[in-house]
Write a structure and sequence with these properties.
heterodimer; A: 89 residues; alpha+beta; TATA-Binding Protein; 2 helices; 26% helix; B: 412 residues; alpha/beta; Aspartate Aminotransferase, domain 1; Aspartate Aminotransferase, domain 2; 4-stranded antiparallel beta sheet; 17 strands; 18% strand; globular
C-alpha cells in the first residue's frame, strides 16, 4: 500500500518569518505527485505551469513544477501528513 | 586582464544544466563553486601524500606536515598576518568566532563588562556571544542599522564606554553586501582599550584584506566561501592574544605534555604553542591544503581585480533591477559603491521562496529566507528576502538572464 513517504523526500520549515512548510517530492515521483495534487485540490491560479496556487480544505498552498510545495498555516506535522495523504494517496 | 569567461573554464560545475537550462549560480554568499585546481589539490593529497600531520617521523607524515604548515603560511601571507602562527585552522567562521567567545570571552568578560555588536550581524556573530553572556553575565549592546542598511556609526560609537571590552562587526553584510568601515570602528575600540573582532566571511573572499592594515585583533573567515572546501576556515588573531588565551577544545595536538603524577593521581598538562594550542585532534589537513590552493588561485587573479569585477557586476545588476520591473524592490541602499556583490530583493505578491523556486526552474540559483540574519530583516521589516550574490565566474550576461526571468515573473 502506498504511503506519503513514497512521494515525499523531505519536509522542512522555510527560512523566514513566514513559518511556512516546504515539502520536497522525490525526484522520480514529482510528476505523479503534481498530477494527483492538481486533480484533488482546487486550482486558484496557474503561473506559467511553474507555480500552481491551490487550496485544499481551506489550506492554501503552492506547488512548483520543480517538485516542491509550500504550505501556509498548517497547524503541525500531523495535519500536514493528513493533507498530504488526502492529496497523494 | 580579468575575464570571467576565461575563469569559468576552470569550474567544472558551471558546464552542467539545471532544469534544462545552463546553471547560473548566484548563491555565492552561501558557498562558492570550486575550480579544478582546488579539487585536484584535495584529490592529490589523498592520492599522493595522505598521512596524519606532526609527530610521526615517516616520510608521508613529513610530506603531509609540510603541505599542512605550508598552507598556513600561504593563508597568513594572503591576509597580511605577521606570521603563520597567527592563523588558527577552524571548521569555518562560526567555529572561529565560537573559539574566541569561549577561549577569550569566557575568561575575560564578566558582569559589568560590555561588548558591542551590530544588528546586521550573521547569527554566528550573535549567538556565541549571547550564550557566553548568559554564563558570565556581561552585557551585549547592539548598534543600530539605518533603514538603507548602512551601519549607524554615530549610534555605534555612542555605545562605547569604559566598560567596553570587545567590538564585533561584519566587514561585509551577508544580506545587504554593505561594506563596513571596520578600521574606523577598530580605532575607536582601541581608544577605549577594547579589542576588535572582524567577521571576514564576506570580505576576505571578495576584496583585498590586510589584518595589520585594519589593525584587527581577531578575524574569522570560511574557506568554502572563497573557492575552498567546506569544513575549513580560519581564525586570525594577534599572537600576543593567542599566547594568553586558554585552549578551546582538549585532545591530541594541542598539548606539549600530559604527565600523570602517582602522588596525587592527577595529570599535569602543558599546552602547545599557538596556533596548535587551538587545534585539538587531527585537523582537516586536505581542506587546509585545498584552501591554500584556492588562495593561490585568487592571488593569481588579483584581489583588486576580483573586487573591481564584483563592483562592476553589482553596479550593472542594481541599475538593471532598479529599472526593469515595477514590482521588484531592492532592499537597502542602491548605491553600488557602498556594496560588495550582494543584492537583496523581493517581488511584490510573491514570497522570497516563490522567487527562488521560480528562478530555479530556469537554472538560476539564488537564496531565500533570513540568510541567518533575522535581526537585520526586522530592521528592514521583512518576513524574508531573496538574495543574489556574485563571484568571479559570474557575468553581466547572467545578470541579464536573471532580469529577463524577473520581468516574466512580474507579468504573472
Amino acid at each position: 500500500m502506498a504511503t506519503v513517504e513514497d512521494y515525499v523526500a523531505r519536509v522542512e520549515g522555510t527560512c523566514g518569518a513566514e513559518k511556512d512548510v516546504i515539502v520536497t517530492f522525490k525526484y522520480e515521483k514529482k510528476q505523479e505527485a503534481l498530477t494527483r495534487i492538481l486533480k484533488r485540490a482546487t486550482l486558484k491560479n496557474n503561473l506559467q505551469g511553474i507555480i500552481y496556487e491551490l487550496t485544499f480544505e481551506d489550506i492554501s498552498f503552492r506547488v512548483y513544477s520543480s517538485g516542491k510545495a509550500i504550505f501556509r498555516s498548517v497547524k503541525n506535522r500531523e495535519e500536514l501528513n493528513r493533507i498530504l495523504a488526502a492529496l497523494l494517496l | 586582464m580579468f575575464d570571467p569567461h576565461v575563469v569559468r573554464e576552470d569550474f567544472p560545475i558551471l558546464k552542467r544544466k539545471v532544469n534544462d537550462h545552463p546553471l547560473i549560480y548566484f548563491d555565492n554568499a552561501a558557498t562558492t563553486q570550486k575550480p579544478r585546481q582546488v579539487i585536484d589539490a584535495e584529490r592529490e593529497f589523498y592520492e599522493e601524500h595522505n598521512a596524519n600531520v606532526h609527530r610521526a617521523v615517516h616520510t608521508l607524515s613529513q610530506e603531509a606536515t609540510d603541505l599542512h604548515e605550508g598552507a598556513r603560511k600561504i593563508i597568513a601571507g594572503f591576509i597580511g598576518a605577521k606570521e603563520p602562527a597567527e592563523v588558527v585552522f577552524a571548521r569555518g567562521t562560526t567555529e572561529a568566532i565560537n573559539l574566541v567567545a569561549y577561549s577569550w570571552g569566557l575568561r575575560n568578560l564578566k558582569a559589568g563588562d560590555e561588548i558591542l555588536l551590530s544588528l546586521m550581524e550573521h547569527h554566528s556573530n550573535i549567538v556565541p556571544w549571547e550564550i557566553v553572556s548568559k554564563i558570565t553575565g556581561f552585557t551585549i549592546k547592539y548598534a543600530n542599522v539605518k533603514p538603507d542598511g548602512t551601519l549607524d556609526y554615530t549610534d555605534l560609537e555612542s555605545k562605547f564606554s569604559k566598560n567596553t571590552k570587545l567590538a564585533c562587526l561584519s566587514h561585509v553584510s551577508n544580506v545587504s553586501g554593505i561594506i563596513n568601515d571596520v578600521k574606523r570602528v577598530g580605532k575607536v575600540a582601541h581608544e577605549y582599550g577594547a579589542l576588535m573582532l572582524v567577521d571576514g566571511a564576506q570580505s576576505v573572499p571578495h576584496m583585498p584584506v590586510d589584518v595589520r592594515e585594519l589593525d584587527a585583533d581577531f578575524m574569522a573567515f570560511s574557506g568554502h566561501k572563497m573557492l575552498g572546501p567546506t569544513g575549513i576556515g580560519v581564525l586570525y588573531a594577534k599572537k600576543v592574544l593567542l599566547e594568553k588565551m586558554a585552549p578551546f577544545e582538549g585532545g591530541g595536538e594541542m598539548i606539549k605534555e600530559v604527565s600523570f603524577s602517582p602522588q596525587n593521581e592527577q595529570c599535569g598538562i602543558s599546552w602547545n604553542d599557538p596556533p596548535w594550542k587551538f587545534e585539538a585532534g587531527t585537523p582537516n589537513i586536505a581542506g587546509g591544503i585545498a584552501l591554500a590552493e584556492a588562495v593561490n588561485y585568487l592571488q593569481n587573479l588579483g584581489m583588486s581585480e576580483v573586487f573591481q569585477h564584483e563592483k562592476a557586476l553589482t553596479g550593472h545588476a542594481v541599475e538593471k533591477m532598479r529599472n526593469c520591473c515595477t514590482k521588484l524592490e531592492l532592499y537597502g541602499t542602491t548605491d553600488a559603491s557602498l556594496k560588495c556583490g550582494i543584492i537583496p530583493f523581493g517581488v511584490e505578491g510573491f514570497s522570497s521562496h516563490d522567487v527562488a523556486l521560480f528562478l530555479d526552474n530556469y537554472g538560476i540559483m539564488i537564496r531565500s529566507g533570513f540568510h541567518c540574519a533575522q535581526p537585520l530583516h526586522q530592521v528592514f521589516k521583512l518576513q524574508s528576502s531573496a538574495r543574489a550574490s556574485f563571484y568571479i565566474y559570474n557575468t553581466k550576461e547572467e545578470i541579464d538572464s536573471l532580469i529577463e526571468i524577473l520581468k516574466e515573473m512580474e507579468q504573472l
